[in-house]
Model the fold of this input.
Amino acid sequence: MPDPAAVKSMFGRIARRYDLANRVLSAGIDITWRRRLVEAVAAAAPRDVLDLATGSGDVAFALARALPGGARILGMDFSAPMLDVARARKARLKRTRSAVEFAQGDALELPLPDASQDAVTIAFGLRNMADRARCLAEMRRVLRPGGRLHILEFSQPDAWVAPLYRFHVGRIAPLVAGALTGDGGAYRYLAASIEAFPGAQALLAEVRSAGFPDATVLTMTQGIVALHSGSRPAGVS
Done:
C-alpha cells in the first residue's frame, strides 16, 4: 500500500499543474470518465454528498452543477495545497445550483458522523490509500442506509491494449508530466500504483466484501478505468 506521507507530499508538489497534466496525459478523456461518475450519482438525486480525495474539486464542482438546488457537496482531501487550488477555483466560478464546501480530512478516519451522507464519491483516490479496506469501511460508515458509493479508478486494461498503455503510463507520462509540473517522479509513482492496483473484478469483490453486496462495475476505455457503484443496505448496521 502507498506511504501516506509520500503521497501527501507528492500531491502538494504538483497541485497547481495537476489539472493541466490530467487533461494532456488523457487527451481529455478524463472529462468523460468523470461525467459518467456524475451521471451515476445524479440518478439518485442525493442531498448530502461527500467527494473524497477531491483534489482540485473537479468532481465536486461537476456535482454542484448537476444536482438539484438544495444539495450539499463536501469535497474532502488530506492535501492542503490541493484544497487551496479547489477554493481558488470556487472563488472564480459562477454560482452553481448546489452548495460546495471543502475541508481537509483523512479518508481512513473521516471527521464526519455515522450515516450522514446520501452518496460518497472518490475519483482516482482509492488507489492512493494506505489501507483500502479501512477506507471502504469509513465510506460505508458515513453513508446512510440506502446511500450510494461510487468509485472511479484506474484499472487493468484489456490484454490487447495493455502493452501500449503501460508504455504510455510508464515512459511517456513521466516525461510529459515532468515538463508540465516539474515533477516526473510523481507520475512514475502513478504508473507503479496502477500496476499494483487490482483489476475491475477483483476490486468489485473487495467492495462487496466491505458491505456493498449489490455493487456493480462499469469498465471504460478498454478497461483502463472502472466505475464501481453500490449501496449500503437498508436496515443493516
About this structure: Strands lie at 48-52, 72-77, 99-104, 117-123, 143-154, 216-220, 225-231. The radius of gyration is 17 Å. Residues 75 and 102 are 5 Å apart (CA to CA).
